[in-house]
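Lab manual, section 2.4: Encoding a predicted structure.

Procedure: take the sequence of the chain (248 residues), apply the prediction step described in section 2.3, and record the output as structure tokens. A sample record is shown.
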Amino acid sequence: MEENLEKKEELTNEEQVVEEPKTGEVVEERTPVEEKQEVPKDDEPIVQEPKEEAVVQEPASTKKKDKFGFIKFLWKIIKTILIIVLGLVLAVILVQRVSHNKATVGGYGIYTVVSESMVPEYNIWDMLFAKKTDPALINIGDDVVYQGTEGDFVDKIVTHRVIKKSRMGNSYTFVTKGIANDAEDPAITGDQIYGKVVLKSVVLTAISKTINTTYGFYFIIFVPFVIVVTLEIIDTVNERKKLKKELE
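Recorded output:
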């Protein structure tokens, strides 16, 4: 029994013995394993996540300014078109009145029908374009504009159809007639012809028929012209005031 107890004590003592480090030995302290951070290589592109951009709402005042700016721009376009159309119409009327329908541009002249002698081909106030043409190229069936010199046609500009053509040497003689007329016109020479009709203008005809009535001229030509001029003056005054404020 005593021997068994001694053996147990010896074993207990042996378990309690702790080995001390020998002199000169380095004791390594174990530390917790740190997580390795992946370092991007030089060859690999660095991808950055896109940042969320803040949405900026435009103030209501800016939207209103844009709206009024568009309306103002549109009105300027309309106003410019009106000025051009009115200017062309007035220019055509003025040229016809001053030149007695004798003026031409590039060999083309504009003439107004003032009688029913060519109905149904042409009606009163129709606007026709006639081109200066060599008499040798004018044939039977062509409509021509010429200056009358005999009878009821003296000093009148007539638009009738050629029904006869004759030649004497280097000169040509023509006989014309209105479609709605029963009688032929007096014979004319090539020198009296202003040109051969090449076109009836639908737009100019509509304008011509409108302005040749009292109310039409007043409401379609005169009133819009006054409005456009007035608005142009107002715009000019406002622009000058705005410029003056900016300079101050």
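Check your result against the sample. Strands lie at 108-112, 127-131, 143-147, 157-168, 171-177, 188-189, 193-201.
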